[in-house]
Amino acid sequence: MALNPYDLYDVRSQLSDEERMIQDSVARFTDEKVLPIIGACFDEGRFPKELIPEIAGLGLLGSSLPTEYGCAGLNSVAYGLICQELERGDSGIRSFVSVQSSLCMYPIYAYGTEEQRQEWLPRMAAGEVIGCFGLTEPHGGSDPANMKTTAKRDGDDWVINGSKMWITNGNVAQIAIVWAQTEDGIQGFIVPTDAKGFTAQEIKHKMSLRASVTSGLFFDGVRVPDANRLPNVKGLKGPLGCLTQARYGITWGPIGAAIACLDEAVKYSKDRILFDRPIAATQAVQIKLAEMARRITLAQLLSLQLGRLKDAGRLQPTQVSLAKWNNVRMAIDIAREARDVLGGAGITTEYCPIRHMLNLESVITYEGTETVHQLVVGRELTGINAF
């Protein structure tokens, strides 16, 4: 039997029937609905909001949360496969789902009250309410403890002042999960985006994640009731716990981007004739393609094991850092090599490698830069914090 060129170690055979069914369902959505329009969306700098109802209808929003809140109740490997197939389409589509699921719905579930869960999670799972996650600030994202946004108690309310930057979904969201300094440490708040004093300003002139909405958020005396505070966590443990959830999905997503680039490079190399033979017949190109397949295979095995550890309740943040570092680096290198195989044709968005390459410049930076994750692993090895 011939091997699947994009799954050389038959990782799919290690999946359950349900996991395979979910992967196939999301793959069909990506093939039929995302790929036909995503190149144009990237060119236009437009997030395809028209896809939100179908994304919600497939159960992809908050997919790992319990069914009692209108969610799918899937395991972590299934969520990873969702991220992989969505990012095979575009990092912007996967980012939308990651933010909604891991950075907005998860903190309400993990840190909120039962009333907050019942109020928000079913509507968010249905795509009726979109969220954004306000942690990163303009003066720097790798040091979240140096937070300038404040929330001060005023009777039964909190008054929030400050700003956040590089916020995915900011201008399409109805609520923002905002982390702010209080007299009792960092706390999270559910902030309606129509609140007086709240402004979202979309960031333009991006060369990356162009099919995604990225915004700055500004809070000028924004008042929210104490009922909107997430009461079950204080300090950086709250936002960092959300980031671990999101980073886990990001370890899977770039595998999809890399597979898309390899697929395009393989097909192009068979059709491109130079010196009376396809470039696929040259050793130079075959070595490039083989190297791409090797690195994809390693990443697939890494994320599958990470997902099994997560489902067993044994996942450690350092393990997520290692996989995020490895898999995003793998994907961005493959996108660049695939662009090279395509030659001049590779600089246009008629082919996917340069679009994925540009998107991955953001993915390798957000949710912890590559350097941050390297230092997390280094700290684990030495016991010394070098931040």
From TrEMBL:
Residue intervals passing through the bilayer: none
GO BP of this protein: fatty acid beta-oxidation using acyl-CoA dehydrogenase; fatty-acyl-CoA biosynthetic process
EC number: 1.3.8.6
SUPFAM superfamilies documented for this protein: Acyl-CoA dehydrogenase C-terminal domain-like, Acyl-CoA dehydrogenase NM domain-like
Keywords per UniProt: FAD, Flavoprotein, Oxidoreductase, Transit peptide
Keyword presence, Flavoprotein: yes
Biochemical pathway: Amino-acid metabolism; lysine degradation; Amino-acid metabolism; tryptophan metabolism
Gene3D superfamilies cross-referenced by the UniProt entry: Acyl-CoA dehydrogenase/oxidase, N-terminal domain, Butyryl-CoA Dehydrogenase, subunit A, domain 2, Butyryl-CoA Dehydrogenase, subunit A, domain 3
Cofactor: FAD
Protein's UniProt keywords contain Protein biosynthesis: no
Domain Acyl-CoA dehydrogenase/oxidase N-terminal per the UniProt entry, residue ranges: 16-128
Coiled coil: none
Domain Acyl-CoA oxidase/dehydrogenase middle, first and last residues per copy: 132-222
Catalytic activity: glutaryl-CoA + oxidized [electron-transfer flavoprotein] + 2 H(+) = (2E)-butenoyl-CoA + reduced [electron-transfer flavoprotein] + CO2
Protein name: glutaryl-CoA dehydrogenase (ETF)
Native source species: Alkalisalibacterium limincola
